[in-house]
Amino acid sequence: MTDHSHYVGRFAPSPTGPLHFGSLVAALGSYLDARSAGGQWLIRVEDLDPPRAVRGADRHILKQLSDHSLVSDQPVIYQSQRLHRFDDALSCLNDKGHLYACNCPRRSYLGLYPGTCRTQTTSETQPSALRFRVSETTIQQKDLAQGAVTWVYGKDFGDFIVRRKDGLHAYQLAVVTDDIAQKVTRIVRGADLLSATPMQTCLYHALDVQSPETLHLPMVLGRDGQKLSKQTHAPTINAAVAADNLNQALAFLNQPIIASDNPKIILGAAVKNWRTDRIPKLMGKTL
Ligand SMILES: [Zn+2]
Fold first, then answer.
1. CA–CA separation, 80 vs 186, rounded Å?
2. How far apart are CA 252 and CA 280, in angstroms?
3. DSSP letter at 92?
4. In this structure, are residues 68 and 74 in contact, taking their beta carbons and an 8 Å threshold?
5. How far is the CA of 176 from the centre of ligand 1 (A)?
6. Average pLDDT, stretch 141-159?
7. Which residue ranges form the domains of the chain, and what is each CATH number?
8. b or e along 87-120 (b: 16 or more beta carbons within 10 Å of the residue's beta carbon)?
């Protein structure tokens, strides 16, 4: 059993554009799950990739969230200000022999990385990407919405990049380092990130930290069957109708809607009503 007195959850948006309905569902789901367990809820801005970050998008997102009464229990942290922590994690992994240098161009293999450079060390003569050498043959997770999932090394996931050739830290490394630093106990996010779980679990194992529980919410799909995203130009959430947005997100997660036009009242009631067994056990669901 999980000790819920230490429950810490989080919502971690990338500042690549304003919040759309899909990200509101993830924010709301993580908030309600944390609050209903008496836990803390944190917001972290994942601005690791400077070329993709949109100026001012972080402030816009935080304002949209607070307009829906979704406010972090601790000061919001920014990944771009935590690069030294990611370097520390890399050193730790390297000292334990988990990393190797890789210079394979992406076009040299199809799909999953075949482990071409696996026997290399990290002593570099040229700038290289750093890869994590997976030692597990399978990773299993009992996801609280999607059920038991098993990933097989070499089929579902391979050795993955933790630092890119251009020196940027990779997503998996940054997420795990921050979730460990923030003592996150349960990750509630969209099912599009379910496939990141085996790689993140490998990092937890390598860093001798227990991996968190996961709850992957169905992705919000548009009429075309594609995930709503900034890339598909999903409409921005309109804060003027925050109560309607929250109720629409509650309905999407198959939770009771609340007859109120006050976001705070809706959240308070939704926390009491929250039941994870009502969440549709689907990877995606059309609006
Ligand atoms: Zn390689």
1. 23
2. 9
3. H
4. no
5. 23
6. 97
7. 4-286 (3.40.50.620)
8. eebbeebbeeebbbbbeeeeeeeeeebebebeeb
Q: Compute, in angstroms, the gap from residue 88 CA to the centroid of ligand 1.
A: 23
Residue 28 pLDDT greater than 90, yes or no: yes
Strands 219-221 and 138-143: what pairing?
Answer: unpaired
What CA–CA distance (Å, rounded) separates 22 from 228? 6
> What's the gap in Å between 182 CA and the centre of ligand 1?
32
Asked whether the whole model's pTM tops 0.90, one would answer yes
* CA–centroid distance, residue 49 to ligand 1 (Å): 22
Residue type for 10, please?
A: R
pLDDT for 125 equals 67
157: CA distance to ligand 1 center in Å? 15
* 167-200 pLDDT tens trace: 999 999 999 999 999 999 999 999 999 999 999 9
Q: What is the pLDDT of residue 54?
A: 87
Can you tell me the distance from the alpha carbon of 258 to that of 28, in angstroms, rounded to the nearest whole number? 14
* Residue pointed to by tokens 């696996």: 118
Band of residue 233 on the pLDDT scale cut at 50, 70, 90: confident
Please give the distance, rounded to the nearest whole angstrom, from the Cα atom of residue 250 to the centre of ligand 1. Answer: 45
Which amino acid belongs to residue 246?
L
Helix (H, G, I), strand (E, B) or coil at 195: helix
